[in-house]
Amino acid sequence: MSAEKLAELLSAMKARSGRTYEALGRRTGMSRSSVHRYCRGEVVPDSYGTIERIARACGATPAELAELYRHWQAALARTTTPAASAPAPPAPSATALPGTAPLPTAPVFAPHENASPAPLVSPTPSAPPALPATAETRDTPGTPGTGTPRATAPGATVAGTERPGGTASAGAAPGIASPRSAEPEAVAPANAAASAPEEPRAKPGDNRGDKPGDRAGKRGRGVGGTRASRVGGRHWRRYALVGAVLVVAGLTFLAVARPLISDTRPPAQWVTGPAWTLPAAPVPSTLFGVTLNSATGAMPAFRVGAVRLWDSETRWAQIQPRRGEYDWTVLDRQVSGAERAELPALFVMGGTPAWASPDGPAAPYPDGSRAAPPDDLVDWDAFVRSVAQRYRGRIEAYELWVLGNDRRFYTGSAETLVEMTRRANAIIKDADPEATVVCPGMGLLWTEEGRSALRRFAELHGYDHCDVAGIKLYQRTASDPPETMLELTATVDREFHRAGIHPRLWNTGTTYSIPLEGPLDDITARNYAVRFFLVGVYARKVNLERMYFYNWGGSKIPIVLQAEGGTPTRAALAVEQAQRWLAHAESLACGNGTAINLPENVWRCDFTVLDGGRRRPAEIVWTSTGTAEITIGPKAERVRRLDGSGTPVQQGDTLVANGEPIMIEHAP
Q: Could you tell me whether strands 662-666 and 614-623 are parallel, antiparallel, or unpaired per DSSP bridges?
């Protein structure tokens, strides 16, 4: 009876609001059909947050929300093993949508909403990853056969999901699994006959495969044909057909009933509020970095904040082709170009010369460099000292190996890598005390292999010998939303917490297989490029300071910012516009989805921006997939877009958010 009462209350609220199922779907980040099923009582979701989002979109009062919770809890109890009762929900706070007051800072406790991911930056190391994985597995790029669970992003059931390539359709975008609370459609097997036992083939002397009209003739020819055998053949086919129907019906029932089936554990605690709220801190211009894929000394023709020297003909083997001999031509050109552009340079070490490790396996480059460490670390010391002394005060930072946990780039032991790090740090600090030392980059973080190598480096106290930890953030595939990278930042934060350390983080690269990924369409490339850097803002809570986009100068990658010799792409110009927005800005908070009273596919970061010598509140809002309707609150004055345009807004206006980040400015 509780389920019927729950549906009755929801339907009444929906009717009172005057909104259609489709409109409610847009506002809640669900499909129209899912909202319809919940309001009709066909399904009881296993998380109260689903009910709460619909009710809030209909204008429910705090008392109505509490009543809905009581009926939801009773309805759910009828379909699950009794468990500890969840606490009654508190009186809901006023809806905080873009254009309203800043994100709430005090956590409010309410029933758990499984459809909405937990804050992506966990306040404790035991918290689960922000973007939960689905049962679906997919090989990690560049690591065939790993079968790593694929990260999900919220908002997969939004109608009109925006897909890479510019097409739109209802349902989830490629690479995005539907939230757990979304109602799955019943799906029968593609070939129902495949679900039934295979009927034995007719053999000579066996009439089970005969057509009815053939039996008399075959009896006359003496091909075995008693009435009993004929009846048995008919019964066999009949039983097989019935079996197939039962199998299909059973699968269909399970698909439809699954949302009604819950495990015996009570729902996890539901916490509202942003992923983090911290004292205001400047957004550094160096957040917007790029890795140079060029050896000419040319720099980007659009605004960036830092450059990284790798794939720029500056590997160790290229600088020191023979013991005691150095060729500084290319590195001098690169460093001088960065100085002219007033861009801090990060020099990356890697690619041992063949003379220093004759028997070492080759690195993936045509210059004969090795993936092994040098046979004698004295050669390493000499190279590090020569670079640090030559470029003292000119190179800002040194990354001590390009990828320390990928055997394509490093095949030595973790102990040797820690020792190389210790020695290099001492040498660099002696030559240039102001230089920043970045520990060897750690990639393959979607795999246990990559995580265990990072863990081992930390256990051996490798991070005691550098100022910054280098990590490689990337999506599993280029078409996945950039926000999925936040699962990696949460993973790294947990590993560091276990090791008892919390170093500064720089994202210094991507996956080796990135050139093999397909290109993105123009709009998706633009949006993803900007959101790549917004991930850096969102991960401020875990000490992430810089994002080096891979790459600048190249054209055989999914997102091209500028091919060397060409003009900046639309994506590059959008990144430049985002930097204008955040020049002299201070970040305050970031949050996502229903925890901050927004549809589950909506992301938001709050700032103060400098305007005419005065600071004013502003926020950047976007969706990870699809679209969502949000309502403009008081004090909002203008919406700014990546093409440089702006439009005035006022309280009560409805805004359709999508994958393009927009800035909403408030009155000072």
A: antiparallel
Burial class (CB in 10 A: 0-12, 13-18, 19+), 250: exposed
What does the DSSP 8-state code read for residue 442?
B
577: nearest Cα among 474, 646, 668 = 646
DSSP 358-422: TTSPBPSSTT--BSSPPSSHHHHHHHHHHHHHHTTTT--EEES-S-TT-TTT--S-HHHHHHHHH
400 in Cβ contact with 439 (< 8 Å)? yes
Tell which residue, 592, 480, 602, has the closest CA to residue 119.
592
The sign of the CA dihedral 128, 129, 131, 132 is negative
> Is residue 108 pLDDT above 50, yes or no?
no
Task: Report how far apart, in Å, the C-alpha atoms of 642 and of each of 23, 479, 527, 529 are.
Answer: 27, 21, 9, 11
307/442 Cα distance (integer angstroms): 19
Report how far apart, in Å, the C-alpha atoms of 192 and of each of 188, 198, 664 are: 7, 12, 52
Alpha-carbon gap, residue 159 to 583, rounded angstroms: 35
Give the torsion sign (CA, 227, 230, 236, 241): negative
CB-based burial label for 287 (10 Å; 0-12, 13-18, 19+) = buried
Q: Which residues pair with 434 in a beta bridge?
A: none
DSSP string covering 273-290: S-SEEEEEEE--GGGEEE
**Letter for the amino acid at 386?**
S
Q: Give yes or no for residue 94 having a pLDDT over 90.
A: no
- pTM of the predicted model as reported, rounded to 2 decimal places: 0.69
Distance, CA of 596 to chain centre:
19
Query: What is 168-222 written as a DSSP string?
Result: EESSPPTT-PPPTTS-PPP---SSGGGGSPPPPPP-TT-GGG--GGGHHHHHHTT
Give the three-state DSSP class for 65. Answer: helix
How crowded is residue 338: how many other Cβ atoms within 10 Å of its Cβ? Answer: 22
The three-state secondary structure class of 137 is strand
440, 459 contact by CB (below 8 A):
no
For the segment 343-366, the average pLDDT, to the nearest whole number, is: 97
Which class for 264: exposed (0-12), middle (13-18), buried (19 or more C-beta within 10 A)?
exposed
d(CA 130, CA 485): 10
Q: What is the mean pLDDT of residues 641-646?
A: 97
Query: Which run of H or of E encompasses 239?
Result: helix 227-257
**Most confidently predicted of 6-15, 42-51, 163-172, 648-657:** 648-657
Cα within 13 Å of Cα(538), Cβ side: 30
Query: What tokens does 46 get?
Result: 């296993």
Q: Where on the phi/psi map is residue 543: left (φ > 0), alpha (ψ -120 to 50), or beta?
A: left
DSSP state of 95: P
Which residues lie closer than 8 Å to 36 by C-beta, 6 or more apart?
A: 21
Paired residues of 662 in beta bridges: 621
Nearest by Cα to 306 from 340, 349, 350, 342: 342
